[in-house]
Specification:
This protein is an alpha+beta fold and about 270 residues long. The chain is built from nine helices and five strands. Strands 1, 2, 3, 4 and 5 form a five-stranded antiparallel β-sheet that branches. Helix 1 (about 1-35) packs parallel to helix 3. The radius of gyration is 43 Å and the shape is rod-shaped. The protein starts with a helix and ends with a helix. About 20% of the residues are buried.
């Protein structure tokens, strides 16, 4: 009977630990959804099989990396040790470790801000990786409750993506992670079809993201007042033709002719 009671107590403790771990996984899911940058599909898949404290620790570690400066100075050595603990080690320290995990979850919950409103994301610059074509630059220009966020790439094409997909394209804030590779030249990106949210973002379209705005557009940039062109220069003044100077000796001949006319031809000739 004592052995049966002991085994029953051990099973009950494992059930409680499993329930606690699943509750932690749901809290982690909620906190991660508020970050601009997703932990990725692999991390999301590990949430569904989280059933003990080491699993919770293995989920907490990458989430803390995403939080970056939000948890500056927090010690993570005990989490690394917990992630590698055996079942026998857990039995002797389960109460203390449960308290520490709860405390770290509370820290994360307080540090991570609420999910951003769609209006705050308009104008955000994102980077999308197209397989076989490289990384391309896009800007969030519009949000619609049905179709999600509309991206406009630097070559003018547009694409609609869900909130979960958009988070995989946004840069982490304050994590110190490297920027993605520089975008390739225009014309190398595969064509996109506007109006249909892209897939592959772990499900959860715009309606499930908690963003209630029906439709938003990025405000158009104000028209810039171009300076008026300067007035044309005034036309150059018309040139006035100067009278041609008489050839040399013409004035003398003119004076002699006048003198002959006034004194008589013969007298003029003899003089």
């Amino acid at each position: 009977r004592r052995q049966a009671a002991h085994l029953s107590g051990m099973q009950g403790g494992r059930v409680e630990a499993s329930q606690f771990a699943r509750g932690c996984a749901e809290r982690l899911r909620s906190i991660e959804a508020r970050l601009d940058y997703s932990c990725g599909s692999r991390w999301q898949g590990q949430l569904s099989v989280c059933d003990d404290l080491p699993s919770v620790a293995r989920l907490l570690l990458p989430l803390q990396v995403r939080c970056g400066a939000l948890l500056a100075g927090s010690d993570s050595g005990w989490l690394e040790s917990l992630a590698a603990m055996s079942a026998a080690e857990l039995e002797t320290q389960s109460s203390e470790l449960t308290r520490m995990v709860t405390g770290r979850l509370n820290e994360l919950d307080r540090a991570v801000p609420p999910v951003r409103k769609p209006s705050e994301i308009l104008g955000e610059v994102v980077f999308k990786q197209f397989k076989g074509h490289g990384t391309f630059l896009g800007t969030v220009i519009e949000f619609d409750q049905q179709t999600g966020f509309r991206l406009q790439y630097d070559d003018g094409d547009t694409e609609d993506v869900s909130w979960n997909d958009l988070r995989t394209m946004m840069m982490p804030r304050g994590t110190g992670e490297a920027m993605p590779p520089a975008p390739k030249e225009r014309g190398e990106r595969p064509p996109t079809t506007p109006g249909t949210p892209s897939g592959g973002g772990g499900g959860g379209g715009p309606a499930s993201s908690g963003m209630g705005a029906a439709s938003l557009k990025r405000p158009a940039e104000p028209a810039r007042d171009e300076p008026e062109p300067p007035p044309p220069p005034p036309p150059p003044p018309a040139k006035v033709a100067r009278p041609e100077a008489p050839p040399p000796g013409a004035r003398k001949k003119q004076l002699l002719a006048v003198a002959r006319h006034s004194t008589g031809g013969g007298a003029a000739a003899s003089s």
